[in-house]
TrEMBL record:
Residues 1-35 form the HTH cro/C1-type domain. It comes from Pallidibacillus pasinlerensis. It holds the Pfam family HTH_3. InterPro entries: Cro/C1-type_HTH, Lambda_DNA-bd_dom_sf. This is Helix-turn-helix domain-containing protein. It comes from the Bacteria.
Length: 41
């Protein structure tokens, strides 16, 4: 994953694939739901 991809995800300008999303959750030791929970819930 590139720095540009991480930056885009952090700034809500990129929707990662499910595979990438699950890998991120695992690396960050969190759940998929907690990682991508909408702010309004």
């Amino acid at each position: 994953m590139s720095k540009q991809t991480i930056n885009a995800i952090e700034n809500n300008r990129y929707d990662p694939t499910l595979q990438l999303a699950f890998k991120l959750a695992k690396i960050l030791n969190t759940t998929f739901d907690d990682l991508f929970k909408p702010d309004d819930i």
